[in-house]
Fold these 2 entries.
Entry 1:
Amino acid sequence: MNTCGFIDAAVEESLGAIGEALAENGRVVVTGCLGAKQDLIRKAHSSVLAITGPHDTAAVMQAVHAHLPKPHDPYVDLVPGTGVKLTPKHYAYLKISEGCNHRCTFCIIPSMRGDLVSRPIGEVMQEAENLVKGGVKELLVISQDTSAYGVDVKYRTGFWQGRPLRTRMLELCRALGELGVWVRLHYVYPYPHVDEVIPLMAEGRLLPYLDMPFQHASARILRLMKRPASAEKVLERVRRWREACPGLTLRSTFIVGFPGETEAEFSELLAFLEEAQLDRVGCFAYSPVEGAAANALPGAVPEELKEERRARFMQAQERISKEKLKGKVGKILRVLVDEPGTGRSSADAPEIDGVVRFKGGTAGAFVNVLVDRADEHDLYGRLR
Ligand code: SF4
């Protein structure tokens, strides 16, 4: 029963309403302004179950749960504070938004999931905090477009731990960086404001890792794909990011054999690969998805040619990757152990990148590994 105690008439009315409620079901918790006058209430109605002051939701809920225990719900009651997680105990994906405002012609995600809808920043931070309390050591920030976080809500201010926070990638990254765990960013686009998070990586508050799906390098193909950002600007940006954060790992994905892709455009892509010297790269041969606008484009590339280009692309990248990993031999890396003998450094996202192999270690622990050897994808070393 919410009450008012502001004027005498309100006190009378509130006491009368408490009496009615008691007569009705006999179990009443009183809250609101009149709750500050406990004696007055007790004198009139000694059988109320509990009395709280105004704005004390927690005390009201405590009284409700004490006198009306929740019925057992087998679906919810088994869920731990960290929610249901399909990943190992030590890492978790943190989804910050759903949907996408882009309309890439090869993709049907916007037609299935709609435009971008950002989760409130307070809710995202609360989930992150709960995960960390539950033992998570690495948070992987995911969405369809992480750099667009908050665009849909005009970067509205939310609250976390009573503190105002804008719904924006930079503010989110700063707040996540305070949790004291590894934070890895996925699906980031090379928008100018991404420059702002690089210093957080250089300072060690975020993992120096960016997963940035470029998809192609030819300006014409990117236009046909309706992708944001051009290749030259990307290269320039990558160069500046590496200057600001030399340990930065860049991961990307590409599509070869997009409708109309000429040999010259594919060569442009290979040249971009050489120039960009990306650390981790995935490559897909274009495959039409039902409902995608790209299906209507002329110049379908024959299957064998797509596969041939994919193989050439991967061969080039393997060479680059091998060289880059060779540069890590002799270094000591901080590694998060996934299972005894296998772990990941800041450069390795689970499932999609390489691993670091060594003898020993306990799942979920951080260890230091001295790298002895490298191949195209993985590193091998020993605990230090
Ligand atoms: S590929 Fe990514 S950015 Fe493009 S429409 Fe699909 S989800 Fe959006």
Entry 2:
Amino acid sequence: MSQLCQGSTSSQEPEDPALLSRLDEAIEEHRSQPGGLIPVLQIAQGIFGYLPLEVLKRISLGMDKPFTEVAGVVGFYSFFSTQPRGRYLIRVCLGTACYVRGGKRVLEALKRELGIEVGETTEDKLFSLEVARCFGACGLAPVITINDDVHQRVKESRIRELLASYRSREAGKE
Ligand code: FES
């Protein structure tokens, strides 16, 4: 397992004043930079775990950009999510190398084990499932990420065991 920086781990309350002031700092820092909207959205998603409507409105006001522009950027990039995510975000690479080396089968096994479709979150809010296009580790396909952990040469037959390791990690925290 290796590490890949992807920001958020779980969804946070968008009303938290401490988190909102971190967002305001990011807006302040990037508001006059050309192309500053995307880094602010990335930071916001890193802070809240997703991009709730209130946060998008605050960014639109703070960056002095029309809401439609902010929402358009969010809709364009699959990395951004306007829905709360589970504690663990699973992203399955379906880029060419991963697809031909079993990525689709890995995805099907995850859907089966978790009982959810792509874009959904399990009822216990532990796992969310998404697909992605190439993590740049094609030689080790198929690849999936779970939060910042990168799992390479993933086998369909190991999915249950892999999920169990995250479930027991969570159980250990209680
Ligand atoms: S195609 Fe999956 S890592 Fe490149």
